[in-house]
Amino acid sequence: MAVPALVCFHAHPDDEAIATGGLMAQTAAAGGRVVLVVATKGERGRPQPGVLAEGDALWEHRIPETFAAAEILGVDRVEFLGYVDSGMMGEPTNAFPYCFWQADVDRAAHRLAAILTEENADVLTVYDDHGGYGHPDHIQVHRVGLRAAEMAGVSRVFQSTMNQTRIEAALAEQSAAIEEARADGVDVPEPSSVFGKPEHEITHGLDVSRYLAEKRAAMAAHSSQISSDSWFLSMEDDMFAVAFGTEWYIETGAPRPASEALRTSIW
To answer: Are 33 and 119 in contact (CB under 8 A)?
Structure first.
């Protein structure tokens, strides 16, 4: 096939490095064109201590961090749709008329569809139907992304998710190490009840272990959100590989029969 064009649609800066950084780096290394579209500037993120000086706006840090991470991952084009971060589900900011959660799906989809058409996109990535963990902007990425793909005629849409089955098994296996890390003051995130999807719903498990250095460096580029001593970046290499060496996707409209192993490539 011709050089593929991959468009990854994300809610906030740093989501791209965590969720699809391996696929992006892999595609770029293979000579494909990689485009990153971010719905918001991540204004409602929680900055690391000392990041913001008096009068600073968080988004002023997050935009250049996104471009720095994109360069590490081999991204050819970065676009921001310009919506405002909606905050976590249930917060008053969800009701602000200009936030992404309140955006008209068709209007937002038209803007993304224009980019898909310009790029002659072969594949679009979005999130699963509950946004991985229930964040309103992630759910909206799912809705807007699927509609934009329909408008632009992109037939291959992959929903980035997390493997709930393997996360539960890993947490059980690493429970002692996790408690020790918490005792040492490391901020270890608590999984929620809507964390990812069970493995039987997942179609693809992509081995991106060759690109872990790029993925880790791209995450580190988002220093306003992910500090060097965070749970993500303070992991030993072997644990980081377990956590981030496989990326999980659900191919829209192409369920995996129970008898079929997880697919390992999208190209």
So the answer is: yes
Residue 51 pLDDT > 70, yes or no?
yes
Q: Greatest CA span in the chain, whole angstroms?
A: 58
- List the structure tokens of 81: 């749709």
| Ramachandran angles phi, psi of 135, nearest 5° | -70, 135
Which residue type does 60 have? E
- Which runs of consecutive H residues, i.e. helices, occur in the chain? 15, 21-29, 58-73, 105-119, 136-152, 164-173, 175-183, 212-221, 231-234, 237-244
Question: Cα-flanking dihedrals φ and ψ of residue 163, to 5°?
Answer: -85, 95
pLDDT of residue 64: 98
CA distance 151 to 120: 13
Please provide the average confidence, as pLDDT, over all residues in the chain: 93
The answer for residues whose C-beta is within 8 angstroms of residue 219's C-beta and 6 or more apart is 14, 17, 18, 21, 69, 226, 232, 233
**Out of 22-36, 46-60, 197-211, least confident range:** 46-60
pLDDT of residue 190: 62
Q: pTM here?
A: 0.91
Q: Are 225 and 48 in contact (CB under 8 A)?
A: yes
Give me the CATH topology for the region 5-251: Rossmann fold (3.40.50)
- Cβ neighbourhood burial of 18 (10 Å; 0-12, 13-18, 19+): buried
With 0-12 CB in 10 A as exposed, 13-18 as middle and 19+ as buried, what is 21? buried
The answer, yes or no, to whether residue 56 has pLDDT greater than 60, is yes
